[in-house]
Amino acid sequence: MLEISAGDTAWVLTSAALVLLMTPGLAFFYGGMVRAKGVLNMMMMSFISMGTIGVLWVLFGYSMAFGNSFGFEVGASKPDGVTFFGILGNPFDYAGLKGLMSADASVFTIPSLAFVAFQACFAIIAVALVSGAIADRASFGGWTVFTILWGVLVYFPVAGWVFSFDGATGEHGGWIANWLGALDFAGGTAIHINAGISALALALVLGPRIGFGTKPMRPHNMTLTMLGAGLLWFGWFGFNAGSALSAGTLASVAWVNTLAATAAAMIGWLLVERIRDGHPTSLGAASGVVAGLVAITPAAGSVNPVGAIFVGFIASVLCAYAVGLKYKLGYDDSLDVVGVHFVGGMAGTLLIGFFADPEAPGAFGAAGLFYGGGLDQLWRQAVGAFAVMIYAFVISYLIALLIKKTIGWRVSASDELSGIDLAEHSEAGYDLSPVYYTNKVQRTLVLSKDDMPVTDKTGATK
């Protein structure tokens, strides 16, 4: 067992806090992009994910992802001859996080609970990402049930496939990380492909918003969206660099690559807008930032900084064009989760097969096509990406259908048109009415020539 490092522990706990901040940041990002009558509901969909997934993670979610995996022996695929195909962590190994408070419980050079905390924040934001596809029309109850079922049936198993390495938390880990040998530094498959394709499944089951494609549904507050993009970029340094699980060279490489790819991606998206539409927009800048962050997530440790620029730029251009597919194909992905997270996640994951630099500390010697590695790493990346895509889409579609046939998904047409905030939460994001409350007596401000006197319900001047 390696000795616990105070520096590594401090870095991972700090990174965990940064990643947790990303979920409120996502709430701002998504909240500003919807219409004013749905901003609170949109933000609540992110916040409730912190509640449901936070509890499930402690009870058995961590164990499902990082317990000793159930699986079977198959022929070797990874060059080092790994033959165990891990499918699902034992949910009872660490149920309730038992045994992990011990001073001897560690993952590499950090306490086990520091790793638990860090991965919990990944699970939370992965679920919250899906919500952007069904903005303005999904019942809060239906969404809450979805977060529970999707966490248990989709995210926890897939996280184990990608993030659980043999010998780290159990003898056997997940098949993508160990048997297949695909590189996914911080979650291009487990988080972005997973959430992005699941978002498509939900959008198909729920159907489009009333007026989709015929009425303008512009963002109501780009200030909130830009604030959210800034918080996401800030938190993403913990997301990617924290995934090194140590305060050293690997974390530094991931940090710089995250900066480089995201900067290039923002420029790429704005160039597409300038050429295609004639003007760059703030929404384009924010979207480009997120597209770059998504794309570099799987590649942050395995490419060099110049490669990171290419990854961010290429993925951003692809995403900028992909967001328009919903109008051609007829699915209402309200806030472009499919176009940004699915497409960006696929791009970043597959581009590792081209740009993986064997000298990068997170490549573990793997070389991409442009570095003399041929197609070996590319096919591994593709198998991992498409396996997660198919699994997540099928299970998410079935979960969505189950909720639709039982408790129901859609709010009523009248509630959707009048405002989902009032219908679902009895609140409004912006209370612009002249009504105020004091001492439990409703009073109304009345404008007049005489210095705006105030009258109560009886008409008596106060």
Short description:
The chain contains 15 helices and 7 strands. The chain is mainly alpha-helical. Strand 5 and strand 6 form a beta hairpin.
Textual characterization of the structure:
The chain is 59% helix and 6% strand. It is mainly α. The strands form three sheets. The protein has a three-stranded antiparallel β-sheet, with no helix packed on it. It has a two-stranded antiparallel sheet with strand order 1-2. Helix 1 packs antiparallel against helix 2 (39-66), helix 3 packs across helix 4 (140-163) and helix 4 packs antiparallel against helix 13 (376-405).
Keywords, separated by commas or semicolons:
three-stranded antiparallel sheet, disordered C terminus, 462 residues, mainly alpha, globular, two-stranded antiparallel sheet
Distance between the termini: 75 Å
Helix proportion? 55-70%
Write down the overall geometry.
globular
List the strand order in the largest sheet: 5-6-7
The number of strands is 7
Instruction: Give average pLDDT, whole number.
Output: 93
Radius of gyration: 23 Å
The poorly predicted ranges are 436-462
H and E string: HHEEEEHHHHHHHHHHHHHEEE
Report on the biggest sheet.
3 strands, antiparallel
SS-based class: mainly alpha
Strand content: 5-15%
